[in-house]
Amino acid sequence: MHYLLLDIGTGSTRAALAEAGGHIIDTLSFENSYYRDETYADALYFLPEELKSKIISLCRQLTEKHPEANICAVSASAARQSFVLLDKYGIAFLGLPNIDNRGRGYADSIAGKADIYKKSGKWVTEDTGAAKLLGLMQKRPALYHKLDKFLSLSEWLAYIFTSELCFEHSQACETQLYDLAAASWSSELCSAYGINSDILPPLVCAGESLGNIMPDIAAETGINPDAVFLVGGADTQLALLQMRMKKGDVAVVSGTTSPVVTLSDEFFYDKNERVWVNANLAASGFVTEMNPGVTGLNYQRIKKSLCPDISYAELEEIYSKKRSFACTASFSSLLFYEKRALKNGGFFMRSPLGEELSREDMLWAVLADVACSIYEQLKRLKAISNNESSTLLCCGGGFRSAALCQMLSDLCGLELILYSGFEEASLGGLILLCNKAAGISTKADEEADIAKKYYPGKDRLIHSYHPVWEKNRQNANK
Questions:
Q1: CA distance 432 to 445
Q2: DSSP state of 207
Q3: Would you say 40 and 463 are in contact if contact means Cβ atoms under 8 Å apart?
Q4: 332-348 burial, b if ≥16 CB within 10 A, otherwise e?
Q5: Which partner for 429 in 25, 169, 238, 411 could form a disulfide, CB atoms 3.0-4.6 Å apart?
Q6: 189-207 confidence digits (pLDDT tens)
Q7: Which residues touch 94 (CB under 8 Å, ≥6 apart)?
Q8: Could you tell me the pTM of the whole model?
Q9: Structural domains in the chain, sorted by start
Q10: What tens digit of pLDDT does each residue of 387-428 get?
Q11: C-alpha torsion sign, points 449, 239, 261, 173
Q12: Phi/psi at 79 (nearest 5 deg)?
C-alpha cells in the first residue's frame, strides 16, 4: 500500500511516493516560478495553471518510475500564507504566495486592530490572506472582482484532484478571516476587510476523505482511480505532527523561515501582541508562534553565491574546527516580538579588511545568524508562555547542519532532539494522517525514534559571537 504526497513550499514543489509503514521511496521536485507585479512596490504572483501542469507531470514521472506502486491515497501539504483565486467558472486565475507583499501599506485603513488580534491571533500585517486581498482590491479591482472562491495552496491541490472546495483549519487561520476560539469563519473579520464571506469554502479537518480522485486526473497522473484524496494542511503543523509534539513541548521548524512554537489546548492571548496564535490540524488545539522570518533561505542563497564549489558536508567539517570568528552577519528579516521588519542587513567586519577573512568565515557567520535569530525568539516565547521544557524539538532541512544544531543548543541551554525523518517532517506528518485514515497502526505511528541529540555546552564560540552580532544588528536597524 502506497501514498502519493504533494508538498508545495516557498522555493520548490515536491511529489513523494511513500509506503504505509513510513518509508519514503522516492521524491521528485522542481523549483517554483514567481512573477513580479509592477503595480506594487513588492508584489509577486504565480500562475496556478502553470504550476498545476508541472505538478501533474511530476506525478506522472513518479508513477511511471514506480509502476509497481499501488497508490491508495493522495494528500497534500503546503506553505502557509499562500493562496489561489478561482473565478466563477472554477478556473484558478491568480496565485498569491507567502512572499507576496501587495497588502503592505494598507494597514492604516483597517479599524479595530485590537479586536482583530483577539479573534484571529495575528496582528494586521501584509502576510495574511485578507491583506493580500485588500491590496488586490485597492490596485487591481478588475482582478479582485473576478474572485469567486479563495483557497489555500494545499486545498487547491485537493480541488485539482477531486473538484471539491474546502479549507483546512490550519490554513484557514492564515487568512485572518478565521475566528480561532470558535474554529469558524468570522463575519466580523470579513467585514473589517470589506471581504464577502461567500468566497470562503467550507472548513474541513485534516485527514478527512474528499472521495476518489477524478478519472481524468487519475488517467493523467497514472494514479489508481480508486485512490482517495485525504485533506492535508499547513506544512508547519504537519511537521509538528511528525514530531508527535505534545502540550508543553517547544519546537523549531527550520526551512525558508524558522517558526518557534509551543502547543496548548486553550487559546493563548497576549495583550502585548508579541506572538501569533494558529489553529492546529483539525482545530485540535492551538500553536503559539514567534518567527525570525527568512533564515534558511538566506543560508542557501549565500552558500550558492560564495561557496558553490564546496559541499555542505565539507563546510560542516570546516565549521567543526573554527575557534574564532572574523565577521558577523545579519540577514534574518523580523523582530517578531516588536512587530517590526528588519530592513537592513549584511556582513559586519573590521575596517580595513583583514587578510584572514575567508568566504567560509562569512558563511559560518550566516549560519550563526540563523542560530542567534531563532534563539532570540525562543527565549521570549518561553518566557511569555511560561514554558519550562528542558528540551527543544527540531525538524526541517536546516537541521541537517550539525553546526546549527550545536549552536542553538548552546545558546538556549537546552537538549536539542531530532527524531527520525526530521529532514522531511511535513511529508512524515502526511504519512501519519494517511495511516490513521486507512486504519493502519505501526510502531512508527505511535512514537518516533530519536535520530540525534545535542547537549548544551558553555563558553563556546557562539556565546562570544552572540553579543557582537546583537550589537551590529541593532546598529544597522536603528
A1: 6
A2: T
A3: no
A4: bbbbbbeeeebeebebb
A5: 238
A6: 999 999 999 999 999 999 9
A7: 45, 48, 84, 85, 143
A8: 0.94
A9: 2-234 (3.30.420.40), 243-478 (3.30.420.40)
A10: 999 999 999 999 999 999 999 999 999 999 999 999 999 999
A11: negative
A12: -60, 145
